[in-house]
Recover the amino acids of this structure.
């Protein structure tokens, strides 16, 4: 699937936000209000000028704005929750090598 110009621009904004140092990284939800932490997907929502919901995944419209398939969204959440830094995740997004859910992110192979 090729990305539209808008999706490419949204991914650039997202990667800039991930690298900005403005977001404390958290796990399990887009945003956790009690300690103001964000999953990499929550940073995407914020970079689009929206308020992330307290859920684990993006809405379909949010995913569409960045050209993310469901499996890619789940793969990014897995990377985030397994300890990859926001900088490392931004590198993966920019390389267009987003892993799909179910891939062993440490080895790059299916379990």
């Amino acid at each position: 699937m090729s990305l539209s110009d808008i999706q490419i621009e949204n991914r650039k904004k997202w990667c800039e936000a991930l690298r900005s140092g403005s977001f404390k990284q958290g796990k399990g939800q887009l945003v956790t209000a009690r300690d103001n932490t964000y999953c990499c997907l929550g940073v995407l929502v914020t970079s689009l000028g929206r308020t992330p919901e307290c859920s684990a995944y993006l809405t379909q419209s949010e995913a569409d704005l960045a050209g993310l398939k469901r499996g890619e969204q789940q793969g990014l959440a897995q990377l985030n929750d397994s300890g990859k830094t926001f900088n490392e995740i931004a590198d993966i997004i920019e390389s267009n090598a987003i892993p799909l859910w179910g891939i062993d992110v440490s080895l790059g192979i299916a379990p």
About this structure: Residues 5-19 form the longest helix (15 residues). Residues 79 and 105 are 7 Å apart (CA to CA). The two ends are 25 Å apart (CA to CA).
